[in-house]
Amino acid sequence: MANNNESIHGSWRNRWTFILAATGSAVGLGNIWKFPYITGEYGGGAFVLVYLMCIALVGIPVMMAEVAMGRRGRQSPINSMKALVSEAKAGPGWKLIGWMGALAGFLILSFYSVVAGWSLSYVLKMATGVFTEVDQTVAGDQFNGLLADPSMLMVWHTIFMILTVGVVIRGVNKGIESTITVLMPLLFVLLVILIGYGASKGDIMSAVDFMFAADFSKLSMEAVLVALGHSFFTLSLGMGAIMAYGSYMPRNASIASTVFTVAGLDTLVALLAGLAIFPIVFANGLEPSAGPGLMFVTLPFTFGQMPGGQFFGALFFILVAFAAWSSAISLIEPATAWAVERFKVSRAKACTLIGVIIWALGIGSVLSFNDWSEFHLLPGKTIFDTFDFMTANVMLPLGGLLIALFVGFGMKYHHAYNEMNMKNAGLFNLWYIVLRFVTPVAIAIVFINGLLPECSFNAELLNAETGECGNSVFMTPRFIGGVILAVTYIGIIVKSLQKPSRGLSS
Ligand code: PFF
């Protein structure tokens, strides 16, 4: 195929607009809301280290593969996958990557928009001084009050979906590109201002210590699974968003250096967000492990106690809303592009309809916090929790695993080589080997371990109180069992998706 044509949806003006757009997709609630609170929950430094390893060994190789697939396919992820599968004469099962990705996009955006709505509502609350000099119970009541009020949640969820659809209907260049080129620089400026504020008014040394001093005794298998899932979520991998953006990428741009820049910026923002949030938390003697409420209870309360907090608190939530907005755009783009290609309808029609479906799905997440809080889709998990868990911990890692295996085993070597267009063949081979063997095994081990009940292979090690298996993640029978299962599992996937007669010539 080696499709030299442009995508019918348009092309980025240059390599930098791709970088901005992909960074806009990557930097979102995952960095500012989720990363600090899971770092807090899973004990700080050791978790950060595992997360960084996941980005390097899994995130970056998969992102390179996803961009390459998009640029070679030059269509929406679903249709790019169809084209790539037929070019590689691979089995039809690989097309699952495109479909599962679109579904994941629907599910993620449906709950993502609800949380983004919270941050919109907090811009208003902060700016109007709702938190100024209140005590912590009042801050807690504010958040609980918001969650208990479905109509308020619906209003903000609806506003956020309108903002998102409003950008995407205007197209790749006039809509996405022009919004992102304003939004992203603004976002960085806001972040720098907030770190300056945290450093001057907060306790930055405790924050650095908390984030970078690794205590491995706290590292559970669950923490490793969460770190892996989060590395997919934060880099927007495994669901086609990056593939769609890759399909608008200029042919001559280097994929490897571009991806390193995007992953580097995303990681930087996550760490900087921690450095903006934790100093304020520690300065006020609060706990970093407050869970999802960290950003919506602990932070507003602390801002409310500090000089200039009303202003800087509002700025903080504007930053969060901008970050969420640029990510949401990329969540709805793959399905929109597919609908335009499939039904030959205008972008406005396609995107509006998809937006309405996602908005409706989001009602389930809105009600998870109030009227339907007792309704569980998975054991102990509301609709909101289920969508979050299923996407971040199941669908994205599975999508990433399939992407790595497709480029590693499904696609022809020389097609991957040509598309990557790397000057250094040694580096290409390094990436290729990591993608074929290291990345899939790492994903599968963590994935299978995460889904297996604790101590599946040795029940005696189970600590009845904590529910954890032994002390160490590694070298337990469960871990070794996981490795064996992982390798078998990968073998089965590759065998069953490949056509038996796959020749070497193209
Ligand atoms: N990367 C985004 C974040 O960290 O908030 C979330 C996300 C966006 C996930 C787009 C997946 C995606 F396709």
TrEMBL record:
Entry superkingdom: Bacteria
GO molecular function: symporter activity
Subcellular location: Membrane
Membrane-spanning ranges: 16-33, 45-65, 96-120, 153-172, 179-199, 219-246, 258-282, 311-329, 350-369, 389-409, 430-452, 472-494
Membrane topology of the entry: Multi-pass membrane protein
UniProt keyword list: Membrane, Symport, Transmembrane, Transmembrane helix, Transport
Cellular-component GO terms for this entry: membrane
One Pfam assignment: SNF
Entry keyword Heme: no
Transmembrane listed as a keyword: yes
Database matches in InterPro entries: Na/ntran_symport, SNS_sf, YocR/YhdH-like
NCBIfam families referenced in this protein's UniProt entry, alphabetically: Na_transp
Family from the record: Belongs to the sodium:neurotransmitter symporter (SNF) (TC 2.A.22) family.
Name of this protein: Transporter
